[in-house]
Structures are given as structure tokens and as C-alpha cells.
Design goal:
Length: 238
């Protein structure tokens, strides 16, 4: 998984122009992602990966010149580090198995909603961040290994093995703010709203909120409003 900073660069590989347009729109709605290109065939996909150097490929299986599985095999044979999220109508078990063996990070069966795509992309983003945080470390503990493999396993304690810079006391403040709105009717908070309730800076509140999402005590969704990026909303599920 590419671990560079900045938005995740996405290549959409889909032979149907209108479907590709929909997938592009889904991706561009999610903060932290940008579409850098589209490909209609397997050959175009291989060329685009070489030229555009994307972080993530949304790969259809049914392409006019070759199977998406063949594209995946060639990418791995040529040593491309790009991650692949399979997006297809193929439901047969063998295709799913071959995608997994080829190193696909996710498998989405068409049709699906924008919310489902958003969920998979945010999961990918959290795993990518966990990999980046492990750079330069000689060893990692089990929590970090789980995060690097995209595991949603919940730790025994909410504040067990906190990342550097986070404290248990402040984590409990943030969790308490989220629990408060959940108790009032399952509501959500933005990082700004949570910061006001907990008496923290917005940047700090967001770090704690994202940590709660990573360990499975909270979930995040996007709220679309006027101009600008969508707002991230957090909900307590612990």
C-alpha cells in the first residue's frame, strides 16, 4: 500500500462510460481522494498505472480486451506497488478467490451505493495511515499490526496502547462527548463540535476521534452541504 502523504490518487478502470462517471463522482465526494484518470480497457489500465502512478485502482473484471484478473496479475508481475479495489458484477467464488490471491484490498459487487463506496475508501484510508505511522519503526505491536492489515478488531480497553501524543484522560473526554450526543438520540458530532464540548483544539479532537474510529468505538460519515469539502461526522458505537 502506497504510504505517501497527500490525497489518495485513484485510477478508475471501467469500460462503461456512464458507470465510470458514477464511480468518479463517488470517489470525489470522499475527502482525501482524487481521481487522476480513467481507463476503458485492460491495456489502457496498465499504461495508465505506469504513466500516472496512482495509489489505488478501482478495477472492473469484465473488460473488452482482457479480464481484470489478468490486469491484476500483470501489475503484480511487473512489480507495481499500486493497491487494487475490485469493482465488478462478478459474483462467482473463483473470481473472488483469485482477486484475493492477487492482493486486492477490497471487492465490491455491483450495484452498490455511494455510501458503500465511501465506507470502503475510508477503511482504505485508515489502513494507509496506519502503514505510514509504522514507517521508521523497527518493531510494531499487535494493535498496529491489526491496523496495518485493516482489522476492525476492538482492543480490550478503549485507551489500551494509545498512539504517541494521545492520552487516556483526553480520550475519555472525547469519548464522553460522543457518548453524550448518542444518548440524546444517536446524534453525531463534527471535530469542531466535539472540540467545543471537550475543551480542545479542533485538530486534537479530530486525532482522538479518528483513533476511536480505528479501534471500532466510533464510526464516521460525510455530510454534504454547500460549497467546499463535505463535513466528517462522528458517531459513538461503543
Amino acid at each position: 500500500m502506497n504510504r505517501s502523504r497527500g490525497p489518495v490518487r485513484v485510477l478508475v478502470v471501467e469500460d462503461d462510460f456512464m458507470v465510470a462517471k458514477i464511480h468518479r463522482r463517488y470517489v470525489e465526494r470522499v475527502e482525501g481522494f482524487e481521481v487522476v484518470g480513467e481507463a476503458r480497457t485492460g491495456a489502457e489500465a496498465l499504461q495508465a498505472v505506469s504513466e500516472l502512478d496512482p495509489d489505488l485502482v478501482l478495477l472492473d473484471i469484465y473488460l473488452p480486451d482482457m479480464s481484470g484478473l489478468e490486469v491484476l496479475r500483470r501489475l503484480r508481475h511487473e512489480g507495481h506497488p499500486v493497491d487494487v479495489l475490485v469493482v465488478t458484477a462478478a459474483r462467482d467464488a473463483e473470481t473472488v478467490k483469485e482477486s484475493l490471491r492477487g492482493g486486492a484490498v477490497q471487492y465490491l459487487i455491483k450495484p452498490f451505493t455511494g455510501a458503500v463506496m465511501e465506507e470502503r475508501l475510508l477503511e482504505f484510508l485508515r489502513t494507509r495511515e496506519s502503514l505510514r505511522e509504522a514507517d521508521g519503526e523497527a518493531e510494531v505491536d499487535q494493535r498496529k499490526v491489526d491496523a496495518m492489515f485493516g482489522s476492525t478488531r476492538r482492543p480490550a480497553s478503549m485507551d489500551a496502547d494509545l498512539p504517541k501524543g494521545l492520552t487516556a484522560q483526553t480520550l475519555r473526554l472525547v469519548a464522553g462527548a460522543l457518548r453524550g450526543v448518542a444518548t440524546d438520540g444517536g446524534g453525531t458530532l463534527s471535530a469542531t463540535e466535539c472540540a467545543e464540548r471537550a475543551g480542545l483544539a479542533r485538530v486534537s479532537a479530530r486525532r482522538y476521534l479518528e483513533h476511536l474510529v480505528r479501534i471500532g468505538y466510533a464510526e464516521v460519515s460525510l455530510r454534504y452541504g454547500g460549497a467546499g469539502r463535505p463535513e466528517r461526522r462522528y458517531r459513538w458505537i461503543g
